[in-house]
Amino acid sequence: xxxxxxxxxxxxxxxxxxxxxxxxxxxxxxxxxxxxxxxxxxxxxxxxxxxxxxxxxxxxxxxxxxxxxxxxxxxxxxxxxxxxxxxxxxxxxxxxxxxxxxxxxxxxxxxxxxxxxxxxxxxxxxxxxxxxxxxxxxxxxxxxxxxxxxxxxxxxxxxxxxxxxxxxxxxxxxxxxxxxxxxxxxxxxxxxxxxxxxxxxxxxxxxxxxxxxxxxxxxxxxxxxxxxxxxxxxxxxxxxxxxxxxxxxxxxxxxxxxxxxxxxxxxxxxxxxxxxxxxxxxxxxxxxxxxxxxxxxxxxxxxxxxxxxxxxxxxxxxxxxxxxxxxxxxxxxxxxxxxxxxxxxxxxxxxxxxxxxxxxxxxxxxxxxxxxxxxxxxxxxxxxxxxxxxxxxxxxxxxxxxxxxxxxxxxxxxxxxxxxxxxxxxxxxxxxxxxxxxxxxxxxxxxxxxxxxxxxx
Length: 457
Fold this sequence. Notes:
single chain, alpha/beta, D-Maltodextrin-Binding Protein, domain 2, 7-stranded mixed sheet, 5-stranded mixed sheet, 20 helices, 13% strand, globular
């Protein structure tokens, strides 16, 4: 029985072995292809920056036309040399004297016609308006706000806003067309000792009081007078402000100096001459000499002239004197604030930036302080006022400090194209009033002439 079972098993194996030998061996599946490596994440995009910050001003040369002489020139050259030696771009500023304000204005007008302007120049904002009308001046807001080359928000807050705003021009979209360089104001100089001798305990507040004191001071036999008249458009503007008037309409298209405040201003001047207590100054800055020699009780001029008055008084014989805002018909006094700025002319983007960087250097607190104390202009930054050098200067020059306190009541003259010519028209109107012509008729004719100038701008 067992033998039979074994034989059966052997027969089955004999049958199956050929089949098993003919079966293919099991195939090991190939590994799946590897996944391609994930792409590296793209680098973050470069932060957007302003066009000015992308420029490189390296190696530029800047031609700078200025008006400075004597001690002003010495400080200017010190500032220029400091920039040339310290700026990291190798920029070189070349200063060139171009005459005083009228001279440099005429020279630039000629340079515009010839297509050969400097890179940077000193000019009053109303003169810049003429240059801007010709399309040759660079707006400064992009430089002021440049991330790389502009002022930080803290720096911008440090500037006296009123000074910067006086360089914005409505005709140019209220853009900043120049940058404040120097600011002063029109004030009244008066002899304190003489007023006390006449029985007065302070300067006049009103124009009526001013006339009264001038008449009291009059002594022709001893060559003593109340008021030394120098005229000028800034003096006329200040008088109009003192009567609560305006010089130009809000839209800048017509003048307003012929209105009642302007007429009253010329009537005051005419009345002083008719009263025999005033005279016209014969030579430039002659009022300073006459004031120092106690020939005249009152004179008007810029606070930039304070050191010259001080020097003249010390040379002639010391007496007590001071400054005050001009007399006024409105409740509070007002002063005409003015001064030159700097503008950049179109050239190449790199040269324009180089010119800006020089002026930015000049506007640093240390240089602002240096310029203000040397030239007796008001500093453009609050930090300059707080600096030890300026505090020392204020202590040594109390009348400068006193005048600085008048700034909150300051007003500025217009900055529109054609105003340089209109200033001449205003000056001529004041001269005609001194000669005795009717103030209303004078100003109506002057206004018509001035409006004709504005109409073609």
